[in-house]
Design a protein that fits this description.
about 120 residues; alpha+beta; Beta Polymerase, domain 2; 4 helices; globular
Length: about 120
C-alpha cells in the first residue's frame, strides 16, 4: 500500500489496491523540493501483474510555470527509485497529453491513480 502524504495535501490512498510502500514524509519532501503538484501511479502497479521485480510507472505534474530539464527528470527518476526501492518509469503529464499516440495517452491518463497532490 502506498502511504501518501498528509490528507490536507494529498489523496488518501488507503482505498487503492496498490502493493507499494513509500514513506509519506519522504514523498512529500520530494514533491516540495521538485515543485511537483501531483504524482500518480499507472500501469502494472494497479493490477495483478505487479510483482516484486516490477518497476513503478509514475506520472508527475509540475507546479504551474515549472519545466524540468531532461537531466532533472533523470535525477527525479533516480530519487524516486530510491524512495520506492525499485526502478521507476517517470513520465511528465504534459508530455503524455501531447503524445501523438492516442491509445497510450488515453490509457495512461484514464487509469492513473493519484498518490500525492497539493492543495
Amino acid at each position: 500500500m502506498i502511504q501518501a502524504p498528509e490528507p490536507a495535501s494529498a489523496y488518501d490512498s488507503t482505498a487503492m489496491n496498490l502493493h507499494l510502500t513509500v514513506p509519506r514524509a519522504a514523498l512529500s519532501a520530494f514533491c516540495v523540493r521538485w515543485s511537483v503538484a501531483e504524482v500518480a501511479v499507472f500501469g502494472s502497479a494497479l493490477g495483478p501483474r505487479f510483482g516484486p521485480h516490477s518497476d513503478v510507472d509514475l506520472l508527475v505534474t509540475p507546479q504551474p510555470g515549472v519545466n524540468w530539464s531532461l537531466l532533472e527528470e533523470v535525477d527525479m527518476r533516480e530519487e524516486l527509485a530510491g524512495l520506492f526501492g525499485r526502478p521507476v518509469d517517470l513520465l511528465v503529464r504534459s508530455a503524455v497529453e501531447r503524445s501523438p499516440n492516442w491509445i497510450r495517452r488515453r490509457e495512461i491518463l484514464s487509469t492513473a491513480e493519484p498518490i500525492y497532490a497539493t492543495g
